[in-house]
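To illustrate the input format used throughout this study, we show a single complete record. The first block contains the structure-token representation of the backbone; no residue identities are included at this stage. The design step must infer an amino acid for every position from geometry alone.
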């Protein structure tokens, strides 16, 4: 056993293991590997077959750091900047270096605005988000929410009092606005 003073038994030899376990060591001989002959060991080569990889086309002006003059060859395209949050993110990249706090504060503000835009967009659909089942509120009572937080020296305890406000306030505000809108009619 590891960490005990007794000397461990020597491992069985490869020949004994191969005789005892069917298929053991099938890939020990490099010539038997499925990747042969494509796999070759050449430590002096990097494995890249290009001087500079083909660049992904830039379909819209991507936000980029002031420190970098060009985009990397491959970049994400799944979440293009849109709306007010996209404008905030573009401002953060266009005006402030990544070394400045203003850059990151604007990105965080853009993230919060994006969350608000998504919640508002959801309310305009026929199937809006369900804050009761999709935020995990029900698991607070079922899965020992409070007892898992208290007395365990967790780092995220300090913001727990804000979570219901951050998650529930937009929904409560939308419900109040809807109520006032229909009450006037």
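Output of the design step:
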């Amino acid at each position: 056993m590891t960490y005990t003073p007794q000397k461990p038994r020597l491992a069985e030899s490869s020949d004994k293991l191969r005789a005892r376990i069917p298929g053991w060591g099938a890939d020990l001989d490099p010539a038997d590997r499925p990747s042969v002959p494509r796999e070759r060991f050449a430590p002096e080569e990097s494995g890249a077959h290009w001087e500079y990889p083909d660049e992904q086309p830039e379909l819209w002006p991507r936000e980029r750091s002031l420190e970098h003059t060009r985009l990397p060859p491959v970049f994400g395209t799944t979440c293009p900047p849109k709306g007010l949050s996209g404008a905030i993110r573009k401002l953060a990249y266009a005006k402030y270096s990544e070394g400045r706090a203003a850059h990151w504060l604007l990105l965080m503000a853009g993230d919060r605005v994006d969350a608000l835009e998504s919640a508002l967009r959801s309310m305009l659909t026929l199937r809006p988000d369900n804050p009761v089942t999709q935020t995990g509120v029900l698991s607070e009572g079922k899965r020992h929410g409070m007892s898992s937080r208290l007395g365990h020296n967790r780092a995220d305890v300090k913001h727990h009092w804000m979570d219901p406000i951050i998650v529930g306030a937009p929904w409560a505000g939308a419900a109040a606005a809807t109520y006032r809108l229909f009450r006037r009619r």
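Structural context for interpreting the output: The chain has seven helices and no strands. The first helix runs from residue 14 to 20.
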